[in-house]
Design goal:
GO terms for molecular function: UTP:glucose-1-phosphate uridylyltransferase activity. It catalyses: alpha-D-glucose 1-phosphate + UTP + H(+) = UDP-alpha-D-glucose + diphosphate. By secondary structure, the chain is of the alpha/beta class. It has eleven helices and 13 strands. The structure holds uridine 5'-triphosphate.
């Protein structure tokens, strides 16, 4: 299929969830603002969108999410204090987040589910294909995924989701895709989707992870999608309809991701993200790795 629509330029970042897995830290602070080393998780996500060429970013926020808007805005007081001190390095770090992209915000009054959060983006997105990046899902910047998905969507049309193979005992934590081969390396055709299945009912061990490139027909479907699993309006249910009908927003392809990814809304994964990214930092890594080695050695002696 040839390219039949404008180049994708808009990213939607749903960040209105309650973050209950991270309570009490998320009682008054959005989970997307939790620091991963020294940057909030959400900044990595916006940086990823920008490096895939998407410089129009709409964040779907909700109650308690004000710090998200403040983080991507100027902070004149802080900037002038750093300017007076001549602290150019920190000044650059403070300005980095406000200079990244053109940011827009929409409030999801009630967190009725990911599908509903995506629907809140409809007036801003219009009738163009667009990308969705979950605000708590961190893809290592060295393992680009979104650019591959956009390129796949431009070749095939329809919608594209990101898939990752997981162990069968993990599949109940994810949406799961039934797939067939396309003959293209790392690209599959999605024939069915099911949200958080038991291992015995899972059609594959391909888990859906938090990156999507969607045809705007998904909005028409979401408007009539009834609440599904957990009483929430599920994006997976709308994707199933896209996969069913090639003429209405389909086909749905899956790009298989084999790189590093962290669910920063999960406490264990959050800790792993910090340790890994801190180890790899030029400024902090050498000292931190040395400490980690001796800590692990001590632990091994005790066990
Ligand atoms: P999660 O499934 O991680 O839900 O949402 P959650 O409520 O944020 O977290 P827990 O499970 O209670 O700890 C996946 C993504 O969808 C967004 C979340 O912000 C997250 O980026 N989301 C979810 C919304 O924007 N609105 C919703 O109504 C639900």
């Amino acid at each position: 299929m040839t390219q039949s629509h404008p180049r994708i330029s808009k990213a939607v970042i749903p960040a209105a969830g309650l973050g209950t897995r991270f309570l009490p830290a998320t009682k008054a602070t959005p989970k997307e603002m939790l620091p991963v080393v020294d940057k909030p998780a959400i900044q990595y996500v916006v940086e990823e969108a920008v490096s895939a060429g998407l410089d129009d970013v709409l964040m779907v926020t909700g109650r308690n999410k004000r710090p998200l808007e403040d983080h991507f805005d100027r902070n004149y007081e802080l900037e002038s204090a750093l300017e007076k001190k001549g602290d150019e390095e920190r000044l650059a770090r403070v300005r980095q987040s406000s200079d990244l992209a053109t940011m827009h915000y929409v409030r999801q009054g009630d967190p009725k589910g990911l599908g509903h959060a995506v629907l809140c983006a409809a007036p801003h997105v219009g009738r163009e294909p667009f990308a969705v990046l979950l605000g708590d899902d961190l893809i290592d910047p060295r393992d680009p995924l979104l650019a591959r998905m956009i390129e796949t969507q431009e070749r095939h049309g329809g919608s594209v989701i990101a898939l990752m193979e997981v162990a069968p005992e993990q599949i109940h934590l994810y949406g799961c895709a039934a797939v067939e081969a396309t003959g293209e390396d790392g690209v599959v055709r999605v024939t069915g989707l099911v949200e958080k299945p038991d291992a015995a009912d899972a059609p594959s061990n391909y888990a859906i992870i938090g990156r999507y490139v969607l045809d705007p027909h998904v909005f028409d479907i979401l408007r009539t999608t009834e609440p599904g699993r957990g009483g929430e309006i599920q994006l997976t249910d709308a994707l199933q309809q896209l996969a069913d009908d090639e003429k209405v927003g389909g086909p749905v392809h899956g790009v298989v991701f084999q790189g590093r990814r962290y669910d920063t809304g999960d406490r264990g994964d959050y800790l792993r993200a910090i340790v890994r990214l801190a180890c790899e930092r030029e400024d902090l890594g050498p000292d931190f790795r040395a400490w980690l080695r001796s800590y692990v050695a001590e632990e091994m002696q005790q066990s």
